[in-house]
Amino acid sequence: MKKEKIFFTITACVVVLLLASCATVKNYQPNKPFVFDNKVIVNGNIPKDEKKRLTIDLQNYWDDSLKAPKLQKLFLWSTIKNPPAFDSTNIGRTKRYMNSYLNSNGYYYTVFKDSIPKYDTVNKQIRVTVYMIINAGKNISIDSAVYALSDSNMQKLALQHFNKTLLKKGTPFNKEVINSEKDRVTDIFRNNGYYKFSKDDIFAEADTTDNKLLTLTLDPFEQVKLLGEAAKSRKENPKWDIMIKQKPVTDSSKLEQYFIRKIFYYPETKPTDFPDSLIMKNDLKLQSRNDITMFYRDGKFKMKPLREHTYLKTGNFYNESLYYKTINTFSKMGAWQQVDSRIVVSAKDSLDFHFFLIPAPKQNYSIDFEVSRNTGDITSGDLLGVSTSFNYRNRNVWKRAIQSVTTFRVGVEFSPRLTVDSLIQTRQFSLSQTYTFPKLIVPFPKWRYLNTLENKRTIVNGSAAYTDRKGYYVLKSFNTNWGYEWGKKNLTWLFKPLNIELYKVDTLAGLIKLFAENPFLRNSFRNGNVVGSSLSVIKTINSIRHPDASHFIRLGLEGSGNFLSLFKPLSDQIFQYVKTEAEYRYIYKFRKTQIATRFFAGAAFPKSGQVMPAFKQYFEGGPTSMRAWGLRQLGLGSSILSDTSTSGYTDRFGDLSLEGNVEYRFTLWNFSSVKIASALYADVGNVWALKKDAGNPNAEINLARFGKDLAIGVGSGLRLDATYFLLRLDFAYKVKDPARQTNGGWMDFSNIQFKEKRVNGAEISNLVFQFGIGLPF
Q: Which of 133, 374, 393, 688 is most buried as measured by Cβ atoms within 10 A of its Cβ?
């Protein structure tokens, strides 16, 4: 016990030291002041978040002669090399840089106070911390916005879309919103045939005049009063009127609306081909239909998939959004590794489009090898798992850019007791086949709404698996489903109207004995099938104004057997349930670190009189979940049933799952393209049953006991990031364990224990190590 206390104390001290900010200075001039650190202090009556944003961004606008060149090396330790000598005359340039940045963000009445150099003498180092104190004042807002374009047709078109302007009354003025509005107006024109129009052809003019100053008066005292009121108004509530104007037209073609004349495809383009040469002269074979032509050498592709994914229609006005949508769709189909294009002006008001597609290798094979360790199984000891999967991919089935993936997987689990009789504990074989069609195969293909969707795919999957757990059970399963995937910008939908899963369990002597000791396990290992559908939607949010912040939202709904309740013979053989899930992730990136958070909630509701099968229930623990617990080793609630059992079965499954995670990620070392990183994290959550079970008390969700049921783990670890893959070794400690019968489940800070004994004599480790591939979330 004493050794454990000493170890924990040393670990705590190390963590504290690692969190302390230290800096080493190299190549400085002794006994001469040099720049050691920079501080920006933003004052003013502005929102807290805006003040924080400005403070962070302004750090990038120090003049090099006043900026401490810090290099992060280890945790929060940093090294300063060749620091510049401090010279107060250099402050002026920094003020100009920062003021220009603030002007671009709409702060035109900023006041800079004199910087306050702070001197600290360490040995022969005269360290200067340079402060820049800024009173940003109020951000200028937009009072009104109008369009004043010289071309009447363009003026009319712009006014038709004025309701979507970004220059709304009260909007903070900055260069970003002006540029965004110019982009929006330019997109309107280029999506309506104005092919040669560009963003540089329009400009924004700001009217800063106070209308009070236009009042005619001969009284000098009244004029002074008006000037004072105008100055006060500009300071307290500055507003500008914005006018979008058109530059003088020197090229009349910029006012011309262009039509789409012809479309050409080159689906067998070689990397060595020159697109311009193919346009001018080529000896390729061709296939034409109306104003669409495909040039080819060997006939590897049909023209129909290309036509179906071309959003440009001959005879329509040029539309830049549809042009790029077509290119992006070709790129994501998988049959081509690179897509290029050319637009040729073929007449005064007509355009020809040429798409050059370089095929990806049609077929490829791959072999994956995995090693895993499973400590939460129905057997009494640890298992070492080894699996190999053979993958075959065909990117152009039937010459229609259909993707085909075939996977055969073989896996075994070995017992650590390497005897002849018990060497292999589990054997598993599985075969899966997936076809991805680059379109939506639906009974109403001409529905106009389908043309507005992007990245449309139909996914058909089938798989079969055979698992032989020696002495316990043989599980046979067959799954097949038909699904659709589509998206638009940062929104993705996945709908599976038909999902069929068939399961058959042959119970052996070991499992029958386990049923006698734990009757509740019968529900987890009963035969049954799933026939239903599912819907999920994923939304990602990345703000232009806050590029360092990203949001991820996922919602899911799944059901089985509900429509079969009318057919009694079938409903008795099919699991009937509804399952809902919600997940939210938020990541904010700083210059060298980042904060990552995640929240997950899921609930499964079986039909009255039924229970959820184990393979559809929730579990927690493992390298991507509650990391202070092993896989499937947390819950249910604050139940201690598993801790009192002597069967050796410790897996826990529940109908309700709640989990929250937060990580502070930072880099330790950089070696070329390889990065050694770490993180400090905390996990909170648990799984529960939805119904009360007399045989398993405290396993059900209960709001009065919710706080006691929550588990908490904290930890850290190492991450090896080699760009293409990331290996992760985390360790976590059970700060609060609902199954702990002392101190309300909380750890005893005065008596740190790395292992505990439970009611059944089982020894539980409070410090858990997890190995994972990729980030946990």
A: 688
What's the CA gap between 567 and 24, in Å, rounded? 77
Cis peptide before 636 (omega within 30 of 0): yes
pLDDT single digits (tens) 37-83: 888 989 887 888 888 888 888 888 888 888 887 755 544 556 777 78
3-state secondary structure 522-549: HHHHCCEEEEEEEEEEEEEEECCCCCCE
Spell out the alpha helix ranges (H) of 608-671. 641-644
What distance in Å separates the CA atoms of residue 500 and residue 483, rounded to the nearest whole number? 12
C-alpha 642/C-alpha 762 separation (Å) is 10
pLDDT band at 208 (very low <50, low <70, confident <90, very high): low
Q: Using an 8 Å Cβ cutoff, are 526 and 487 in contact? A: no
267 in Cβ contact with 302 (< 8 Å) = no
For residues 208 and 240, give the distance between their C-alpha atoms in angstroms, rounded to a whole number.
5
pLDDT of residue 321: 93
Helix axes 175-190, 152-160, angle to 10 degrees: 110
Mean per-residue pLDDT for 359-365?
A: 92
Taking only the tens place, the pLDDT of each residue in 391-436 is 999 999 999 999 999 999 998 876 544 444 566 778 889 999 999 9
Show the 3-state SS of 502-522.
EEEEEECHHHHHHHHHCHHHH
Task: Tell me, yes or no, if the pTM score tops 0.90.
Answer: no
**Region of residue 516 (phi > 0: left; psi between -120 and 50: alpha; otherwise: beta):** alpha
Output the DSSP codes for 297-359.
Answer: SS--S-SHHHHHT----TTSBP-HHHHHHHHHHHHHTSSEEEEEEEEEEEETTEEEEEEEEEE
